[in-house]
């Protein structure tokens, strides 16, 4: 199956293509909506949320676009960082809504990341 892409925009609920196109009658058509929030911006939001709710030594990385039900999200793995070692993890993940930029991770995600991060910060105690 050959896939062709035709750029356009949604205006007043209708798709308007940037140039005139003629498709064969009976063509199968799929509409893919590009995320409203770029990955770079979503990653900054995820990093800010991690600092505010999990800890200042946690960073978001490895972003991927994933579908969550009917919603698309940018999902970032969370890593524990320090100047003395490479990042540990991932210790969890942060989801950012691709349309609104809202953080979708909840209190349970915070608790999981803190618990997993604590294991890395005191490995000698865990072995004893």
**Beta strands, count:** 5
Q: What spatial order of strands do you see in the largest sheet?
A: 3-4-5
Percent helix range: 25-40%
Spatial shape: elongated
Largest sheet: 3 strands, antiparallel
End-to-end separation = 59 Å
Arithmetic mean of pLDDT: 87
Report the C-alpha radius of gyration, rounded.
Answer: 20 Å
Report the total helices: 3
Order of helices and strands: EEHEEEHH
Please describe the topology of this protein.
Elements: E1 8-11, E2 14-17, H1 39-53, E3 58-68, E4 71-82, E5 85-97, H2 107-121, H3 123-127
Antiparallel strand pairs: 1-2, 3-4, 4-5
Question: How would you describe the overall organization of this protein?
Answer:
The protein is of the alpha+beta class. 27% of the residues lie in helices and 34% in strands. The strands form two sheets. The chain has a three-stranded antiparallel beta sheet with strand order 3-4-5. The N and C termini lie far apart (59 Å).
Task: Kindly list the characteristics that best describe this protein.
alpha+beta, elongated, two-stranded antiparallel sheet, 3 helices, 128 residues, 5 strands
Provide a compact summary of the structure.
By secondary structure, the chain is an alpha+beta fold.
